[in-house]
Amino acid sequence: MNGISVLQEALSAPAEEARNRFAGRLNGYLDGSDVVHAVRLQGWLGLEVPGPGCHVGTGSWDFTRFKPTTSPVSCGRCRSAGLLTSSFTGGPHQQTLDLEGI
Looking at the record's lineage, which domain of life comes first (predicted)? Predict the structure, then answer.
């Protein structure tokens, strides 16, 4: 098992927990900010975690800083991109197949 596989295995449970926190099309905000973003799944070290739909930098590798909220989207970048609601519903997640090298 290579280093990235070990890291992915270690982070798979926290990533699933993060996805479950956003179940039900909740929007999200970053700790320390009152700007509410639409939520989209984003690739992170081979895993998918909920993140701001506008892809704004979070200033950290800590995806747990992104918190769910029922407040409406207030992010100008999300709104100008037409992201007025979150598309991620949470719950079970289907893994993607790694077909590289086949």
Answer: Bacteria
Residue-number span of the structural domain to which 44 is assigned: 3-81
**For the stretch 5-18, what's the b/e string if a residue is b when 16 or more beta carbons lie within 10 angstroms of its beta carbon?**
eeebeebeeebbeb
Closest C-alpha to 88, from 35, 33, 19, 36: 19
* Domain-embedded: residue 40: yes
CB count within 10 Å of CB 38 equals: 24
Domains contained in the chain, number? 1
47 lies in some domain: yes
How many whole angstroms separate alpha carbon 21 and alpha carbon 19? 5
Q: Would residue 91 count as lying in a domain?
A: no
Q: Would strands 66-69 and 39-44 be described as parallel, antiparallel, or unpaired?
A: unpaired
- 72 secondary structure, DSSP code: P
pTM: predicted TM-score of the whole model, two decimal places: 0.74
